[in-house]
Amino acid sequence: MTKLRGIVVRNTGSLYEVKTDEGQLVPCRVKGNFRLRGIRSTNPVAVGDRVVLTDSGGDVAYIVEIEERRNYIIRKASNLSKQSHILAANLDLAVLMVTLVRPETTTTFIDRFLASAEAYRVPVVLAFNKMDDLSAEERAETEALIALYQNIGYHCYLLSAAEGRGVDALLAEMQGKVTLLAGHSGVGKSTLLNLLVPGANVRTAEISAVHGSGMHTTTFSELFELPGGGSVIDIPGIKGFGTFDMEAEEVSHYFREFFETSAECRFSNCTHTQEPGCAVLEAIERGEIALSRYESYISMLGDKEEGKYRSAF
Ligand SMILES: Nc1nc2c(ncn2[C@@H]2O[C@H](COP(=O)(O)OP(=O)(O)O)[C@@H](O)[C@H]2O)c(=O)[nH]1
Ligand SMILES: [Mg+2]
Ligand SMILES: [Zn+2]
Question: Is the whole model's pTM more than 0.85, yes or no?
């Protein structure tokens, strides 16, 4: 029995594909019971994981060990679930692809993703796609949103994946890195991937005319190597982003501008909900912190303790 090391490049339910350090692709199953800090996960092993496998010469090899993860992004498997789902592991970057319309990406979803990426120490950028498909009004709204996130310090890329525009700048940011490509189904992830990785031949889907949402053609996670170095991890579209394993007091640390401003709050344990002398609430009053960010923050606090935290606005 030989022991091999490699990286998980594909996960289709219970079957994994590992690319060994020697460059061989090996179908694998998981042996043993991997638990993440006692959290139950729907996928014990994620794409991007470095693993050890034993190959006994049969049809499949067995993953017997996961090397310690540098980082990962995790979310609740569903709204009420106690189970988690690891989106990907060992990331240098996450690109959240968004469209304000067709399909709609809400600011709550964006902020939840950003905060989670901060929590797990994954640098994140935003890619606004389908810039070719906006009315004047929608374009103005999108530009306002881009300004909002740029002000906080997030890099924003404006794309039309369908027309191949704006892609080079994003590629420059991704080159040489392991990047997770995330976003709702239908925003254009697969279209972008096909541009970045010639030969990837990922299926793209029409947007449902009825729901304005994508059809979920990507049903498994897969890592593609970028020509010129680095790789991209394509995952199935995510609908919601339930946060996991985050203490209420911690949440504001992951809203960058709140964290900076909170140094001026009267109380060091300020939750920015009703405390006197709260610098965050004052900054919102003055229009320096966006109300949409605050609403996302309150909604994330609500994940922890239903009804305990209320918006001050
Ligand atoms: N107008 C426009 N349509 C796009 C763009 N990018 C992708 N699409 C279309 O949006 C639909 C969903 O794209 P797809 O790449 O499958 O999205 P995914 O679910 O995020 O992988 C397809 O019909 C694409 O042709 C874009 O930049 N502009
Ligand atoms: Mg897709
Ligand atoms: Zn405060």
Answer: yes
